[in-house]
Design a protein that fits this description.
The protein is mainly alpha-helical. The protein is about 75% helix and about 5% strand. It starts with a helix and ends with a helix.
Length: about 325
């Protein structure tokens, strides 16, 4: 088991390195290959009225004239030890881990990412609990009552949940539950968990349900398909022949066998949501990582976008690492290997 964990940790570190190289290349190498000069890259960080001499000086200060491997080495070094940023008239220090420096707001990116990540993690964690509980429960009941009225109604609702876009359901939910009926706070409301847990949950309940509707529908369909497959296996018939209670057969043998594919997609879904639920955050006006990335794109502030991308890659890698470890808990064959 220890060797399995070590292998997965090494694979996660290697994945993060590859993602950092690819991400850095997309933002700094690809434009150079497309014909954009160092001055062209630097022009994004100066005003529109800047002179050619100012743009050239900015390109030199930011190191855009250096070879791409030198630029990446400087970026990677900043993650571990920080980086001194030359602003021309003065210098600023970007402390480790330095994931970039916004030349629009004149601030390091990482502290802003940490502040926004609290909102995004709260949104993703609460929604994940709702969609996992309701999605798996509905999927199991639909599989056990295959062809019944409940099964047909549940799969119809699941199909509608998968089909409806999040931004539409979010706006409809705000219109009725917040502005018309006053049952939920309006958009843009967030209370830190440490300040008031009840207000935190109340403010995020509507975004949780809106986001969970999409994923719970998908998980219900996948759970139903997995349960229908596992409940027809020989070991299920053997368990029933041994006289095990039906509840134990369904939960311990049937559901456990159907959880493996659900763990896989849960790791990807949760990791990506931690990287920013762009549509949900935009619909409800939550200042999370997704909205932060959108603001960076609109303001042509590439360090913000790259910081969110790297942080999202980190969360996806960590989520997949946890999923790999959970495989050993759910599936005994992994432990045997």
């Amino acid at each position: 088991m220890l060797a399995y964990v070590i292998r997965r940790l090494i694979a996660a570190v290697g994945l993060l390195f590859v993602v950092s190289v690819i991400t850095f290349s997309i933002f700094y190498l690809v434009p150079r290959l497309a014909g954009v000069s160092a001055e062209g890259l630097a022009s994004r960080y100066v005003g529109r009225t800047a002179t050619a001499a100012t743009v050239a000086a900015t390109a030199r200060r930011m190191g855009f004239d250096d070879p791409i491997y030198v630029q990446y080495g400087r970026f990677a070094k900043g993650i571990f030890v920080g980086e001194d940023i030359d602003l021309g008239a003065e210098k600023d220090h970007c402390p480790a881990p330095c994931l970039g420096y916004s030349f629009v707001t004149k601030q390091p990116v990482f502290p802003e990412l940490v502040d926004r990540a609290k909102v995004t993690f709260s949104l993703a964690a609460g929604a994940a609990v709702i969609w996992v509980v309701f999605g798996i429960a509905v999927g199991v009941l639909s599989a056990l009552r295959r062809g019944s009225l409940f099964d047909r109604a549940a799969m119809t609702v699941a199909l509608a949940g998968v089909s409806l876009p999040v931004f539409w359901t979010g706006l409809i939910a705000l219109t009725f539950f917040s502005y018309r009926w006053g049952l939920a706070p309006p958009g843009g409301t967030f209370v830190p968990f440490t300040q008031n847990p009840l207000s935190w949950a109340h403010a995020l309940m509507l975004p949780w349900i809106t986001l969970a509707l999409l994923f719970s529908a998908q998980y219900a369909r996948l759970t139903r398909a997995g349960m229908l497959e596992t409940m027809g296996e020989d070991y299920i018939r053997t368990a029933r022949a041994k006289g095990l209670p039906e509840r134990k057969v369904v939960v311990k043998h049937g559901l456990r066998g159907a959880l493996t594919p659900l763990l896989t997609i849960f790791g990807l879904d949760f990791g990506l949501l931690i990287g920013g639920a762009v549509l949900t955050e935009s619909a409800f006006g939550l200042n999370g990582l997704g909205k932060y990335a959108v603001d960076g794109i609109r303001g042509n502030d590439l360090p913000k976008v790259m910081g969110v991308t790297l942080l999202a890659a980190l969360f996806v890698a960590l989520a997949n690492l946890v999923v790999d470890l959970l495989y050993a808990v759910v599936d005994p064959r992994v432990r045997a290997k």
